[in-house]
Amino acid sequence: MTNRKPRVLVTREVFDETLDYLRQHCEVLANQDDVPYAPDALAAKLADCEGLMCCLTDRVDAALLAAVPQLKVVANIAVGYNNIDVPACTARGVMATNTPGVLDDSTADLAWTLMLGTARRLPEVERRIRAGEWTGWRLKQWLGVDVHHATLGIVGMGRIGQAIARRAAGFDMKVIYHNRNRIAPELERKANATYVSFDDLLAQADFIVLQVPYSPQTHHLIGAPQLAKMKPTAILINSTRGGVVDDAALIGALKNGMIRGAGLDVFENEPKLNPGFLELDNVVLAPHIGSSTEATRKAMAMLAAQNLVAALRGEAPPNLLNPEARSRR
Question: How far is residue 163 from each of residues 94, 96, 190, measured CA to CA in Å?
Answer without folding.
Answer: 32, 26, 10
